[in-house]
């Protein structure tokens, strides 16, 4: 028994050392990337079927190239339809590049990869676990979702490819999320981000090829992209919350903000800022739901309003500040997005867009959610409280 305990302690120490030095090496290799303000034409999607209909149609109409990055592509009927469409376009002579996160898309088989390449699809996995920091790189995921078609059409947001995003998972039910299609100005930044990740994965560097960067017309939506590589986003969000005056609305599937971010939210509430948090009632991963509850305790006491989505599964990632600024993209409001993952968000200051997002948010809050009260919080079952304690120990990795 003593030997087992010693071995366990050695293993835990190795994990901690691996993660610490792996992250240190990673932070020394990344730098902040600043994109200029763009003005795009836009279309918002909150329903997976509608998104897939438009995405598949735009891919079908591609003439020159299709560049796609997803965190997750599953092994199911809709995923097979998606991959078969990419094979078809490659066989037609369209340049197709597909980049998938190595862990998120673990269901993609070697046979499928071989068939993609035989069809002419240029394929690679992103963020492969590697030595010497195997534990850190296993956790360091590429969570971005980017599609660029002919350099003029772009998609990004929270949806991946799989049946649950169509609401076909019997446990999760309807999938509520946000994805944005843009065309014209702004697509060049999505292209650059894809090329950056593609270059890291394959050593094929495409930035200098002008054929991928056509002249683009401007649209009405002002937006500025913010890519983050396990750094930078937390400090920026802290500044936004510190400067809030009247309202903070946060929609996220995973609420694990950490101590510093929590204190900033509580300080805003103390100033009289109205704070509403929207999270799922159900969980799609172990312990992420329970990890939020220690934060909920102090937030409820401070007068924050917390709602749990009951109409299926909530996967949206939005922050609205004072009805003036919307943070939209792939980053969750958790430590993993703040400190580990590659993410892509954008900041939008546009009354029409913000009103659309705010309207969707409030409909979800008041018509599709259950308000968490102090009374309900205190009635949590003993088993959940035990899970909360355990989840707090591993919350950095959830």
Automatic annotation (TrEMBL):
Enzyme class: transferase
InterPro entries tied to this protein: Cardiolipin_synthase, PLD-like_dom, PLipase_D/transphosphatidylase
Keyword Glycoprotein listed: no
Main location: membrane
Top-level taxon in the UniProt lineage: Bacteria
GO CC, any one term: plasma membrane
Boundaries of every PLD phosphodiesterase domain copy: 138-165, 310-337
GO BP annotations, alphabetical order: cardiolipin biosynthetic process
Matching PROSITE patterns: PLD (PS50035)
One term of GO molecular function: cardiolipin synthase activity
Subcellular location(s) per record: Cell membrane
Keywords: Cell membrane, Lipid biosynthesis, Lipid metabolism, Membrane, Phospholipid biosynthesis, Phospholipid metabolism, Repeat, Transferase, Transmembrane, Transmembrane helix
Pfam families per the UniProt record, alphabetical: PLDc_2
EC number(s) reported in the record: 2.7.8.-
NCBIfam families associated with the record: bac_cardiolipin (TIGR04265)
Protein name per Swiss-Prot or TrEMBL: Cardiolipin synthase
Organism listed in the record: Schinkia azotoformans LMG 9581
Lineage of origin: Bacteria, Bacillati, Bacillota, Bacilli, Bacillales
